[in-house]
Write a structure and sequence with these properties.
This protein has 201 residues and is of the alpha/beta class. The chain has a single domain, classed as 3-Layer(aba) Sandwich (Rossmann fold). It contains 7 helices and 9 strands. Strands 3-2-1-4-5-9-8 form a 7-stranded mixed beta sheet, with helices on both faces. Strands 6-7 form a two-stranded antiparallel ribbon. The longest helix has 16 residues. The radius of gyration is 16 Å and the shape is globular. The N and C termini lie far apart (32 Å).
Length: 201
Amino acid sequence: MENYKLQLVRYYDKYASSRNASLRDSWKCDIRSYFRDFLITRQLGKILEIGSGTGQDSAYFRDSGFQVTAIDLSEENVIRCKQRGLHALVMDFYRMTFQDQAFESIYAFNCLYHVPSSDLKAIFQELKRVLISGGYMLIGQRGGMAYEGEYSNAKKTEPRLSVTFEKEEYESILRQYFRLTESHVVSVRDYEFHWFIVEKP
């Protein structure tokens, strides 16, 4: 496993318990419920969450009537997903074992910013592979500036890879693989959060 992935596993294994007990910010819940309603309107009920963390969002979709599969690199996160009664797997979204067009939608919230920019082509091709034609994916992550490097803060000093883009640049990348359906910006304290809905043609 690549060094930056090992860093992520160590970080998320260490903080799995505290993250599992934390409450979601209201603006994150608003995005989640928007996507739920978006999918229900289109009668798309089979969803994959990548980088699921401890399963808070996957449980929300499950409780809303969706058939949910959750994957994460962290075994500690997956254990907590299973404690919520979720179908969860330790899996790298670089190389998923699912069949082609296995899912009607994908939820990728705060996980793809850990992907090196040089790997985005392979990642989007793999995500596109497991999504049905006419299926949708939500991507949400920090943005507003171009940055690629290690990130840490005073409370959690363990470094982890963070890759952010200006909104227009990321939109351009997405359009190479998907039809860009929606694009939004949320101002959060000292940063921008960008979220997108894309469709597989």
